[in-house]
């Protein structure tokens, strides 16, 4: 096989190459949406009221605490999905791909297409999880930014800074509480969808 042929073989995702996996990997992090692994950000980052350093510091600490609550809850949900649904789909994908490679009569292109079909359900699962996490993040971000806007309006209207800070903290906490309550339903919906994809 010449250089061109070798390059084509590597590029087709055939049996001699490492099989392409949706999202750049197949374990814990590869199939996940972008939000659970964000560092230093998230839908609650940057919320604070007051020009003083103390006000900013307290606001950042409050935002980080609430962000951590959401982060831990979402991580727990994602781990549950990975254990109960994704691993089974990964096992099916690898066994399916292996069977593609056992057909000695198939052409390189046929093997490649067979492997791609095997990977399709996991790619669909990745897209589903990513989409749901992004929608959850967007909803929470809109809620917390509404809290921030109300706090700024109160400051502009002459309200006392300490009072506004407390209102902001209460508002953001309610946003987080409300969205945490959505997670069980969201998890159930995703598990049902993943089961449907995996059939």
From TrEMBL:
<protein>
    <recommendedName>
        <fullName>Protein FAM136A</fullName>
    </recommendedName>
</protein>
<dbReference type="Pfam" id="PF05811">
    <property type="entry name" value="DUF842"/>
</dbReference>
<dbReference type="GO" id="GO:0005737">
    <property type="term" value="C:cytoplasm"/>
</dbReference>
<dbReference type="InterPro" id="IPR008560">
    <property type="entry name" value="DUF842_euk"/>
</dbReference>
<feature type="region of interest" description="Disordered">
    <location>
        <begin position="1"/>
        <end position="44"/>
    </location>
</feature>
<feature type="compositionally biased region" description="Gly residues">
    <location>
        <begin position="22"/>
        <end position="31"/>
    </location>
</feature>
<comment type="similarity">
    <text>Belongs to the FAM136 family.</text>
</comment>
